[in-house]
Amino acid sequence: MGKTKHSGPIKLDTSWEPSLWASLMPMGLGKIKPHHIRDTMKVMYDNRDNLGYAYRILTQGVCDGCALGVSGLYDQTLTGPHLCTTRLNVLRLNTMPAMDTKWLEDVSAMQKLSSVELRKLGRIPFPLSRKPGENKFTRITWNEALNRIAHKIKGINPKQLAFFLTARGITNEVYYTAAKMARFLGTNNIDNASRICHSPSKTALKRTLGIGASSCNYQDWIGTDVLVFWGSVPANNQPVSTKYMYAAKKAGTKIILINPYKEPAMEKYWIPSVPDSALFGTKIVDDFYQVNIGGDIAFMNGVMKHWFEMEKEKPGSAINHAFVKEHANGIEQLREHIAKQSWEEIEKSSGLTRDRLKEFAVLLANSKSGVFVWSMGLTQHKFGTDNISQVANLAVLRGFIGRKHCGVMPIRGHSGVQGSGEMGADPFSLPGGDFEEKSWTRIEKLWGFPIPKWQGDIVGVTLENSLLPDGHERKTRLFYTSGGNFLETMPDPDFMRKCLESVELRVHQDIIFNTSTLVDAKEEVIVLPAMTRYEQPGGGTSTSTERMVYFSAEIEGPRIEEARSEWEIYVDLAARVHPEKKHLMHFGSAAEIRAEIAKANPNYDGIQHLSKRGDVFQWGGAWLCEAGSFPTEDGRANLIPIEIPNLHKPEGHFYVTTRRGKQFNSMIYSNKDPFNNADRYDVLINADDAKELRIAEGESIVVYNKYGTFQGRAKFEATKRGNVQVHWPEGNVLIPKGVYETYAGIPEYNTAVKIEKADTFHANKDLKYKERPIEDLEVNVG
Predict the structure, then answer these.
(1) Best CA proximity match to 416, nearest among 195, 602, 94
(2) Residues 101-197+415-600, CATH architecture
(3) Nearest CA-CA partner of 278 in 27, 560, 555
(4) According to the model, what pLDDT value does residue 158 have?
(5) Where are any strands of DSSP class E within 184-246?
(6) Whose CA, among 320, 346, 359, 670, lies 20 to 30 Å from 496?
(7) Would you give the end-to-end CA distance of the chain in angstroms?
């Protein structure tokens, strides 16, 4: 797919540019902003018992935070050292000692702790067991633990067995071994955290462009005419990226954010490793387009409608006809579809005026290059795949694909997730391909055993299946999760608790306890202590957002004596279930796994040569679809007409979406968002909306719908009118359960709600639900 090789890091221009300064006040004194020096000092204090090991992890390991791909302190984008607070925040997970075992004697005391408090207890020390009604965890041996799990697997239908892998520092070697083990045990019920975030990206890009990953590099941000972020706040979730944005601004790039909330982190940022930015901050975004939650499809249809109208007046003024004619299908069907869209419908759904949409359309039309970046603001909708297909439509119509300073980029929030699906660790894929006959045939030949041909379930359905009646072939009876906290990541936490409690045997393979670990199971909960990526014998690899495969060597340091490498646990378990054919599922080293990955996924040919610190290669070359060569059946991109979703919202309702604060996935590191000073229970609402409801700032309010009730405080922010935001996972009580995206199965994380003053709500709570038909509140965005 790619031909040109990545050129290596480029030198950052650090000359002072006062026109980009965010404030003349040195260090942003008095501003609401991250305090990088203070945070760094806190991290040093937290790791004071293992400072040497912490230093070696930071300088020798590949970042286990976001997926920008920093090896040691350096990456392939810019010269110079890079370090961010996200990486520093997760550092303690790798350096902390084992927990005090006295906690294991009183589960009721542990159940009173939050996940933040549980995390601070320390690492899981050894294999543990707890049966229903027991108020303690009992220490067991590895043999006892794995034999019990193997015995259970032998006694159930493979469709009643399911595996899940989270994103916490998991390596490609672990994902691959898990994917192979699941099929070896006869199940396709395997899923991972990446799919819950970006499966619509992969699905949409496959059907439109024939690819399942970013088509470009971070270097393409620097010098492109326009860099557009859709539903993504990298300054918060991938802080190192602000350095790339700084470099882009210095090169003349215009940066645009399309989001319901005018994110302060994207408006101004103090970059600690750039002298003038550290002192005076940097103005990042040139313009904000505040869309309704779920209004992006209408927004993009409006842009295309303007383009087609511009073409009537002056052919070639908006669409790259030469590129489309040579490399794309469906232009006429798309033109006809857009012509049927009324401006009234587009404006109402997007929340933006025709003139405002034209500004963006003209900006793109006048740009010779562009990079489009998005994250969960686009993917976590019932129509997430359609959202991403629209982004691809815009890129193809302008020819922003397959060349320097151009491309589409689903930016990843965790370091292990890009490789998860490419290793086959989800129900829709096998290593190097989709879950389809040609992939079965190829992989069965390599693995030497048959692959089950039935479609596996996504993790949400797997957990719901635990509630199926006894005897049902899909009833989940054994759920094996490597990391993950479903009480705090999935919609409707109370329902999720019932699902977890209904599983007969639940296995938690992890480095720490979380609230999900403490939920009862019908027969037994088994907890297995896992190694971190830096402890993995033989090292491990991870794949960055831009398809860079980095090798992270094993790092000398203290160890949890009984913790085991995750891939070794899988191999051992498989051998106990099917000892007669264990040779088919055997790996003696991490290097052996990499050698097999190179055969299983042709894109990863080269991973077998990674063996020492600093080793890296990029699969696919610098640009996928280079020179307009798309890996589709006919070699052409597909322009897909997308309908505007029904965003019906009854009078008096608001759209609500979930946001992230100072956190890493569900692991919260502060009760205050450093960018807007919001508390975890603050509801971000437009001041004019609040005024109409006679709500004062800081006043206690209730956000509610059919699914749940969220009690918080009003915080006035620059949100789009009619749209509010609550923090995730606290606000998950409002999100409907069992609602999944049509094509990729991602959970819906947006809905419609009503908002009232707390005293008014509580005074009339019973009356409300008696007088109002419950169906009136059953409103989902989508």
Answers:
(1) 195
(2) 3-Layer(aba) Sandwich (3.40)
(3) 27
(4) 98
(5) 190-192, 226-230
(6) 670
(7) 35
Q: Percentage of the chain surpassing pLDDT 70?
A: 96
> Chain-centre distance of CA 441, in angstroms?
31
**What whole-number distance in Å separates Cα of residue 238 and Cα of residue 373?**
13
Tally the residues of the chain. 782
Over range 93-100, report the average pLDDT.
Answer: 95
Cβ atoms of residues 168 and 566 within 8 Å: no
Asked if residue 700 has pLDDT above 90, the reply is yes
pLDDT, averaged across the chain: 91
Counting Cα atoms < 13 Å in the Cβ hemisphere of 39 gives 18
Q: Give the integer Cα–Cα distance in Å for 611 and 598.
A: 14
Distance CA 34, CA 672 (A): 10
| Rounded-to-integer distance, Cα 132 and Cα 467, Å | 17
Ranges of CATH 3.40.50.740 domains, the chain: 101-197+415-600
Cα-Cα-Cα-Cα dihedral sign, residues 628, 632, 636, 638: negative
Nearest 10 degrees: Cα torsion 503, 440, 602, 588: 60
Contact between 782 and 759 under an 8 Å Cβ cutoff? The reply is no
Closest of 506, 573, 657 to residue 132, by C-alpha: 506
In this structure, the strands spanning 505-510 and 478-482 are parallel
- CATH class of the domain at 654-757: mainly beta
* Sheet strand arrangement including 287-289: 287-289, 254-258, 226-230, 370-374, 407-410
Residues 6+ apart with CB under 8 A from 56: 555, 556, 557
Q: What is the pLDDT of residue 664?
A: 60
User: Nearest-CA neighbor of 64 among 45, 34, 47, 87?
Assistant: 87
Q: Please give the pLDDT value at position 377.
A: 83
Is it the case that residue 197 has pLDDT exceeding 80?
no
- Contact between residue 71 and residue 616 where contact means Cβ atoms under 8 Å apart: yes
**Which of 198, 197, 241, 201 minimizes the C-alpha distance to 220?**
241
Cis peptide bond N-terminal to 729, omega within 30: yes
* Residue 236 in this model has a pLDDT that exceeds 90: no
Tell me, yes or no, if the pTM score tops 0.85: yes
Spatial CB neighbours of 39, under 8 Å, sequence gap ≥ 6: 85, 88
Domain with CATH 2.40.40.20 in the chain: 654-757
Residue in this structure with the two tokens 């229970």, named with its chain if needed? 681
The 3-state DSSP class for residue 77 equals coil
Nearest CA among 210, 178, 177, 170 for reference residue 194: 170
Measured between alpha carbons, how far is 279 from 29 in angstroms, rounded to an integer? 10
pLDDT in tens, 508-567: 999 999 999 999 999 999 999 999 999 999 999 999 999 999 999 999 999 999 999 999
CB 781 within 8 Å of CB 647: yes
pLDDT single digits (tens) 13-34: 889 999 999 888 777 777 777 7
- pLDDT tens by residue, 41-52: 988 999 999 999
Looking at residue 49, its amino acid is: D
CA distance 592 to 602: 16
CB 490 within 8 A of CB 496: yes
